[in-house]
Amino acid sequence: MLCLEKIFREKHMSITKSARPALILVDIQKGFENIEYWGGQRNNPDAELRASEMLKIWRTHHLPIFHIRHCSTIPTSLLHETNAGNEFNDLVTPLAGEPIIIKHVNSAFIGTDLQTQLDIDDITTLVIVGLTTDHCISTTTRMAGNLGYETFLVADATATFNKKGLDGQNYPAELIHETALASLNKEFATIVTSDIIKQSIQ
């Protein structure tokens, strides 16, 4: 993570309060607490805590916040709206007046009015946190970049699970996380740490 901070400084990248960046909290829901259900291994256990720290900063400075909730169309999914796992993690429970965007696919922009809400409020900079790195975070970040938003993804405020390859090989969660971030960096978003955000939004 220190390397990310060095690159950020050297390239003079910046994110400031004056840019009114929107914090996009993607799928930080209770269903993801069941690690066995999602593959048996997870990286970055403090991702939700880091996301909650970002949320506190945004609330303190009255910056735009959007909570994304995944409502699976599969009835047996922990993220289906009839299951308790659909609820937001207690660390990031929305306050009254904070927008909640309901999605049914990987991207927070597909089938929702997120882009419309951002554009109406003249928001051009996004900071993305949440779950999971290689699925909804990656898809949302790719679309954000393609739609022209200045996009920052907070590496230590997202996490994922291990994945089985086509040949049955088990790929560890940290490897999935790191390769997903590497695929996004400089192409669709600037990958940063929560410390960089804390230093920038003051």
How would you describe the overall organization of this protein?
The protein has 202 residues and is α/β, with parallel strands linked by helices. Helices cover 33% and strands 19% of the residues. It contains seven helices and eight strands. The strands form two sheets. The protein has a six-stranded parallel sheet, with helices on both faces. The longest helix has 14 residues, at 47-60. The two termini are 20 Å apart.
Binned, the helix content reads: 25-40%
Unreliable stretches covering 5 or more consecutive residues? 6-12
Give the overall shape, derived from the CA principal axes: globular
**SSE string:** HEHHEEHEHEEEHEH
Main beta sheet, described? Answer: 6 strands, parallel
Report the mean per-residue pLDDT as an integer: 93
Helix-strand category? alpha/beta
What descriptive keywords fit this protein?
single chain, 202 residues, alpha/beta, six-stranded parallel sheet, two-stranded antiparallel ribbon, 19% strand
SSE topology sketch:
Elements: H1 2-10, E1 22-26, H2 35-38, H3 47-60, E2 65-70, E3 100-103, H4 114-120, E4 125-131, H5 133-146, E5 150-159, E6 163-164, E7 170-171, H6 173-184, E8 190-192, H7 194-200
Parallel strand pairs: 1-2, 1-4, 2-3, 4-5, 5-8
Antiparallel strand pairs: 6-7
